[in-house]
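User: I'm writing a short report section on ligand binding and want a predicted complex to refer to. Could you take this sequence and zinc ion and write out the structure as C-alpha cells? A short remark afterwards would be nice.
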Amino acid sequence: MNIIKNEKITIRRPDDFHVHLRDKKILKKVLPYTSSIYGRAIIMPNLTPPITNIEESHKYRKRIMRALPSNHHFIPLMTCYLTDNTNPREIENGFLNNFFFAAKLYFKNSTNYTKNGVSNIFAISKTLEVMQKIGMPLLIHGEITDNDTDIFDREVKFIDIILEPLIKNYPELKIVFEHISTKIAVDYVIESNDFLAATVTPHHLFFNRNSLLNEKFLPYLFCLPILKEKKDQKALKKAVTSGNKKFFLGTDTAPHFYFCNKVCQIIKPGIFNAPSSILAYLKVFEEMNALKFFEKFSSENGANFYNLPLNKEKITFIHKPKRIDKIIKIEKKVSFPFLAGEVMNWSVIL
Ligand code: NCD
Ligand code: ZN
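Assistant: Sure. The C-alpha cells for the complex follow:
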C-alpha cells in the first residue's frame, strides 16, 4: 500500500466476500455499487426460490453479467444454497466444474428467505464429507434459531452447539464464519485452526446495540446477526485491524426496498451498505491507526483463504470529503443506504 503525501491511498482492488444482489430490477440497481469498487464478490443464493442447483446458479450468473455496466471488471463467485435435500453429487459437480465457488448454510428460518434452509446439520453430513474431500468452502450464517434462544445469544450458542462439533467431525473442511458479531466469536476464530476464517461487516464495526435501540429505534440498523454490545464491537475492530489473516472483508450488503405510506410496518433485517462499505471500512482503519493493514483485510486475506490470485488492478482513495446518498430509489420504493447522508473523510477515485 502507498500513502502519497498523506493525501492518497492506493491498494489492490478489494473483494467483497459476502454480497446479496437480489434479482431483476433490484439487481440492476444495486450491482454497480458493488462492481464499481470490488473486483470479485461472493454472491449469496437466498433468492426466492433459492439457488439450489447448477442450472439455476448458471442462469443467475448470466443475469448478473447482463446487469453489469460494460466498463466494470467484476467476477461474481456463485454459491449453492444447502437444503435437507441437497444432492452431494450436484455439489461436487458444481464445484469441480466451476459453477459453484462455495456452498452456503442457512439454518431454516434463521434470516430472510431461509424457509428452505437446513433443519438439522445431520441432514447434510454426506455433502459436508464431499466438500471436505474436494476442498469446497462452507459459508455459514452462524446463528441458532430455536424459539427458546434469545436473539442476542444466537451466535454464541451456535459456536457451542454446531460449530465446535462440526470442526471436530470435519477438521479439514474450509469454513467461513460469516458476519461475526461477538467477542466470543472473534476469540474462537483466532484460536481455531487455519481451516476456519471469518468475515466482518462495516455495520458491526461501526455500531453496537445501543446505536440501534437507545433513545430511538433506528430500523435501518436492524440486521442479522443483530448488533451486540460495545465490548463486542471493540473486539471486532481490534481483530480486523490487527492484520490477522483469518479476518477479511464481507459486507453482507443486503438491500431492501420499501414502499412506505406514512410508516413501514414490517422491517426486514438487512443493511444496504454497498454505497458506503469501502469508505466505512477505511474510516475504521484510520481511526484505529491501522491503515497499514487495510489492504490485507480488504484485498489479500480473503483471496488467500480462498486460494484466489490477488487482484492486479488498483484502487485509489483521496482525502476529500464524500457524502453518502441519503436515499436510493427504485421505482416508487426506497432504500436507505448505510451511513445515509453522512460525510466520509475519503473518496474513491473512479
Ligand atoms: C440478509 C438478507 O436480507 O438477505 N439479511 C441480514 O440481515 N443480513 C440475510 C443474511 O445474510 O442474514
Ligand atoms: Zn448475508
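A remark for your report: The radius of gyration is 19 Å. The domain at 14-308 is CATH 3.20.20.140 (TIM Barrel).
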